[in-house]
Amino acid sequence: MGRVLIIGAGGVGTVVAHKVAQNPDVFTDVMIASRTKAKCDNIVKAIGNPNIKTAQVDADNVDELVALFNEFKPEIVINVALPYQDLTIMEACLKAGVNYLDTANYEPKDVAHFEYSWQWAYKQRFEEAGLTAILGCGFDPGVSGIYTAYAAKHHFDEIQYLDIVDCNAGNHHKAFATNFNPEINIREITQNGRYYENGKWVTTQPLEIHKSLTYPNIGPRDSYLLYHEELESLVKNYPTIKRARFWMTFGQEYLTHLRVIQNIGMARIDEVDYNGVKIVPLQFLKAVLPNPQDLGENYDGETSIGCRIRGLKDDKERTYYVYNNCSHHAAYLETGMQGVSYTTGVPAMIGAMMFLKGLWKKPGVFNVEEFDPDPFMEQLNKQGLPWHEVFDGDLEL
Ligand code: NDP
To answer: Best mutation site among 58, 166, 181, 295 for ligand 1, i.e. most ligand atoms within 8 A of its Cβ?
Structure first.
């Protein structure tokens, strides 16, 4: 049915490649390209399908990308490199006439700041080119928006309160490690918190607001209010929302390490001079931390990510909780990667499947909640991320 190019051969790219290979009726021709070709070749070896092509590409370089697109002629690119590459890949897609999907919004390298404005600015150019760009199609962002769209379509006349809750109750048995790219992860967590209330954004100190929340099959966990990018598009696309927040669990050990990393300057993203060489401390730290891709083997426990929603249906207040629990070990057995890469990579594959099946295809730049959630929800159940619903329970929030 379709030709797909996966860019990025990290933890998420590995899962996307496995899941794409499991759906050969949809993905007939596949290429994995990344900065380091050997990593792409290793993924192909692990999957055991020599028909998957590989290539080296610097995704910061538009001309290199265009040359690769013109040679392989993909219908859609799944961008699972880093958020820094979003704009160059979108630019190359426009030049070569290729559709686009990613899992994280653009961030400039030198400021830890994420917002959709840079990518939304491409809307008209994608419309004029007749190309589709699907933004933020991992789990959160991604499934969190699709859950919200599904709730709005089937269970609410008006969504008023939205809390996205992300719990990782896994244990990788390392003193400190991040579950995805450490540089991106630490930049996200050390920022100010932010949530939306009554038409305004409220800023908090980093990790200032926290609360114990109870997760299915896991129990109570300390959950911290963070800013997360899907809040920006969800409050825009669901204007009835009065309050939207995002919560993530962290253990005390993790937070202590994080505090030390910040206090000693290792979370800095500006250049420092070290023996005449310019280094960015956070990038150096990434080089010495455990590689998130190597955590899978000893990772036990599970993740639980969902949306807790309160609103009106037929003039009555109701609550709704929709969530998925994902076992790190099961993810590892299937793809060689832990649950955080798995929960991101599976939705990215499904998004590309939706596009190739013509179900999520319209010219322009869209966040996932702007498409029909039903066929996507159906695939989540088939592709390894089944979801569960609780109606009119206590949301704790
Ligand atoms: P990794 O760091 O493991 O992998 C990133 C990959 O991109 C690496 O293979 C890297 O190459 C490659 N890459 C980096 N820069 C370039 C470049 N200039 N040109 C070509 N390739 C490049 O990250 P993850 O797999 O953990 O994460 C991938 C993406 O998924 C990130 O954008 C992250 O923010 C997002 N994500 C989204 C989530 C969601 O739920 N929405 C959750 C988790 C992650 P090399 O190996 O040579 O360094």
So the answer is: 181
- Residue 203, classed as helix, strand or coil, is strand
Q: Which residues line ligand 1 at a C-beta cut-off of 6 Å?
A: 8-13, 34-36, 39, 57-60, 80-83, 85, 103-104, 138-142, 180-181, 184, 292-293, 340-341, 344
The preferred substitution site among 18, 31, 32, 35 for testing ligand 1, maximizing ligand atoms within 8 Å of CB, is 35
Mean pLDDT of the 389-396 span: 98
Q: How far apart are CA 277 and CA 43, in angstroms?
A: 33
Phi and psi, residue 385, nearest 5°: -125, 65
Determine if the peptide bond prior to 141 is cis (ω within 30°). Answer: yes
Task: Say if residue 227 is exposed, middle or buried (CB neighbours under 10 Å; 0-12, 13-18, 19+).
Answer: buried
Q: What is the pLDDT of residues 263-321, one digit of tens each?
A: 999 999 999 999 999 999 999 999 999 999 899 999 999 999 999 999 999 999 999 99
Tokens of residue 289, six digits: 């931390």
The answer to whether the predicted template modeling score (pTM) of the entire model surpasses 0.85 is: yes
Q: What distance in angstroms lies between residue 189's CA and the mean position of ligand 1's atoms?
A: 17
The answer to whether 186 and 282 are in contact (CB under 8 A) is yes
Task: State the Cα–Cα distance between residues 180 and 186, nearest whole angstrom.
Answer: 10
